[in-house]
């Protein structure tokens, strides 16, 4: 099993943009929207060229080829494959650690998807390019798992809570599709087309940060592998069952920790991608920005509001996500009343896992277990 990818046209994630005093990015900023439109046009041209100039399909070596867009998907497939009895070839497109919110595929990525047997992607706004790739390079034998469609009505809209800045660049999409469908490739998903004049909700894409969602996705992956490789179906089924038991056990640890905790509120001096996790366990939260935001600097009103909540609720920690420089969290903490016991802690949203991290042993369960340790401290345990 290996990671295959050519990092030719990667852009550094805007959601992990470095701190830049004096620069503010605003929702729907013209330069950002124009960049996305240009990227979509370039991708369309690229796809047209591939369709016209290449004959790409599944290689005739009998090997199953699986392509994933983010690390959690990749790791779930590894777990279900187990010892990989069929010698499946597994590809992670974002192996460089680029955030999915601004990842753009290289030509080699499109060709890899065109020739795969199973393609797994999130299905939200950030990877609308994938819907275009599937439509242009249709493959009747390819299976597709769209995480957002797998959740169906359980997918959550991005929400603005009290004190949070509205700083998402929201592009609108056609919402037609078949929620829950993970059958043969039709090339149709809810994020197929952009419509600048249609007011549609933006959904929270960070669906993998719920262990309960992860269990649903693993089940879908197991079913897909059993379909692709009936000879080893029982192996995949048993591997999935064993992994689901581990997910359930960790979910129970989260539940017990929250039940025992004296604090039931999290406060982020950062963007907030953990809505699915907090909803699973009945936690409330405050944050500077929504999960899709590219902002790094909050307004004075937001900082003072968050600092006030730190004081009001006597919260033991201000949280950030991986890759943050922590400056906003530190400013919020310093604006509140002095508390020598207060900590700045980081929860990992699994958006920047690299090939080096994977080679060093990073796993979905391992990172979510580490997050539980951080959560216990943030909840006063």
Sum this structure up briefly.
This protein has helices spanning 30-53, 71-81, 107-114, 128-136, 147-151, 211-228, 233-260, 275-281, 300-313, 327-335, 355-359, 364-378; strands at 65-68, 89-92, 118-121, 143-146, 265-272, 284-290, 317-321, 343-347. It is an alpha/beta fold and 381 residues long. It is globular and about 65 Å long.
Describe the structure.
The structure is a single chain. The protein is built from 12 helices and 8 strands. The protein has about 375 residues and is an alpha/beta fold. It is globular.
State the CATH architecture of the largest domain: 3-Layer(aba) Sandwich
Give the integer mean of the pLDDT values: 81
Overall SS class: alpha/beta
Number of domains: 2
CATH topology of the largest domain: Rossmann fold
Per the principal axes of the C-alpha atoms, what is the gross shape? globular
Amino-to-carboxy terminus distance: 40 Å
Rg, nearest Å? 21 Å
Classified in CATH, the superfamily of the largest domain is Nitrogenase molybdenum iron protein domain
Uncertain regions: pLDDT < 50 for 5+ in a row? 2-40, 47-57, 169-184, 186-198
Read across the widest sheet, the strand sequence of neighbours is 2-1-3-4
Number of strand elements: 8
Topology pattern, helix = H, strand = E: HEHEHEHEHHHEHEHEHEHH
> DSSP strand (E) fraction?
5-15%
How many helices in DSSP terms?
A: 12
Quick one: CATH class of the largest domain?
Alpha Beta
